[in-house]
């Protein structure tokens, strides 16, 4: 009679692909407008230091140090010859729909994260190909031939490792991290690359002498929880390559939000607005990727004494574009007295959501990492990847 442990070993491990488009907005612009090709291009933000943040930078601009979510005035200082263009979200959404249609040729278990990235579970693919690597190559080829765009893909047995893998050989990369390599890979991974480890936590880890996964692996689960709170349990699991989250093709949302914690407290309102602009860009990508609009916009503040405050504004009609959202964010900021206040965390969220076709969402998104659920019985053989 097989033991429970033996039964778990007999289960197939999943075959997970994470696909991430390369400089998506900028690449669409360069595809559609030949005069932009080969030039440093910045989508979003305003030139001449007039405000805004970078939504996406082409690889030519990135070579100057320009990055997504950077204030436009910093981007222009780094790359004075950069071309600034306003986002064309209709064009990006059209490309995203086509890309998802390509995904669905191979599996219906697709979890979009934004307009330009998604997880796919191809454990049992529609075409009976059996190899996640072959499927990833075919997806990349179809995106190149049908949309004249490039994507990077990561292939592994869980979401966490597949996502990291997709970023390893950008642009136009394909990286496979097999089951036998995962634990050694996680041991060498810098702590700032761990999903869920922000800048502040990474700095704290490094100050304590924890620079790579192997350093964290020396600690017990109880020690990690004592040092880092509840996320310590997550760190204990993930440094061992354990991630039981399933690809969720039908996530429903009541709210979508983004936030960031800062190593140094923010005290200038201009700095706060720049950060909120950056967060709004991320929020728009998530909303449009899920084809959602919302009527209630909320700004979250955490002060240096760890006290929290939220302020909201509700509109008559739902929105999901950067201009409308950031206009409301600025109105909210204008009504809050932040003089003398030190901000350690900012967040922006949207609720009262509707699908873009007007149908109201009813179920709640599972926004927390489901890392510790039991693994499903239809995981993939390592040799089948």
Automatic annotation (TrEMBL):
InterPro entries associated with the record: DNA/RNA_pol_sf, DNA_pol_Y-fam_lit_finger_sf, DNA_pol_Y-fam_little_finger, DNA_polymerase-Y, DNApol_IV, PolY_HhH_motif, Rev_trsase/Diguanyl_cyclase, UmuC
Catalytic activity: DNA(n) + a 2'-deoxyribonucleoside 5'-triphosphate = DNA(n+1) + diphosphate
Entry cofactors: Mg(2+)
Main location: cytoplasm
GO biological process: DNA repair; DNA-templated DNA replication; error-prone translesion synthesis; SOS response
GO function terms (MF aspect): damaged DNA binding; DNA-directed DNA polymerase activity; magnesium ion binding
EC number: 2.7.7.7
Enzyme class: transferase
Boundaries of every UmuC domain copy: 16-198
Signal peptide: none
Stored Pfam families: IMS, IMS_C, IMS_HHH
Catalytic residue list: 117
HAMAP family: DNApol_IV
Record PANTHER family: DNA POLYMERASE KAPPA, DNA REPAIR POLYMERASE UMUC / TRANSFERASE FAMILY MEMBER
Assembly notes: Monomer.
Protein name stated in the entry: DNA polymerase IV
Gene of this entry: dinB
